[in-house]
Amino acid sequence: MDRELIARDLRAERLDLADFLEELTPEEWSRDSLCADWTVREVAAHLTTADTLGATLAGLVRARGDWDRMNADAAVARAARHTPRELVAQLRSFAESPRRSPGAAPIDPLADIIVHGQDIARPLGRTRTAPTDQVVACLDHIVASRFYGARKRLRGLRLTATDADWTHGTGPERVEAPALDLLLLATGRRL
After folding, report:
1. For 37-79, what is each residue's pLDDT tens digit?
2. Which DSSP helix (H) or strand (E) runs through 175?
């Protein structure tokens, strides 16, 4: 996907998720998400950040080099500082921003918003969809990236999308599912 297309799709996904979040009840905001140890509110807070290189390095030092811990600490702190209404407003105002975490590829924020949208919706028993072409582009990126751990996680598997012309891997164990479910599997979610 080219950068203009990614930016357009990212804007649409951010605004759509903001609309979705706006309709949640206070109880739903405090529910657990698919992200280990994160509430819906903390996932939403995570999606409103794109740290500078300096802030990222400082966060990594505080987290002793653990990227996941750094992200979790920042999300928890941000969620505590902002109300759900403020987080929705921030997500809307951030919709057109091209900023991304240092070292992230242009498509990483799109993958992030699609996956985290599912992290929020599925435990609430709600449905969120994403255009299949976007999901497939994110899948292609994630299975090739060393950052997500998908290579190790998917070793021995042959993934086949049931709703798109997409396959990955040559392993003996076959997993056939919609592309969105395969994206969640590739990013370490349990389905």
Report:
1. 899 999 999 998 866 666 767 777 787 877 778 888 888 988 9
2. strand 173-177
The residue to which tokens 């750094």 are assigned: 70
Q: Which amino acid is at 108?
A: D
Token readout for 12 is 């649409």
Q: Which H helix or E strand runs over 161?
A: strand 157-161
CA distances from 16 to 88, 91, 111 (A): 11, 10, 14
- pLDDT tens, residue by residue, 96-134: 887 787 778 999 999 999 999 999 999 999 999 999 999
β-partners of residue 161 are 177
Strand pairing report for 157-161 and 167-168: antiparallel
Residues shown for the chain: 191
pTM of model > 0.85: yes
> What gap in Å lies between CA 12 and CA 127, rounded to an integer?
17
DSSP string, 59-119: HHHHTTT-HHHHHHHHHHHHHHHS-HHHHHHHHHHTTT-----TT--TTHHHHHHHHHHHH
| CA distances (Å), origin 27, targets 39, 84, 86 | 11, 11, 17
CB atoms within 10 A of CB 108: 20
Contact at 8 Å (CB) between 53 and 130?
no
CA angle 171, 176, 181 (to 5 degrees): 110
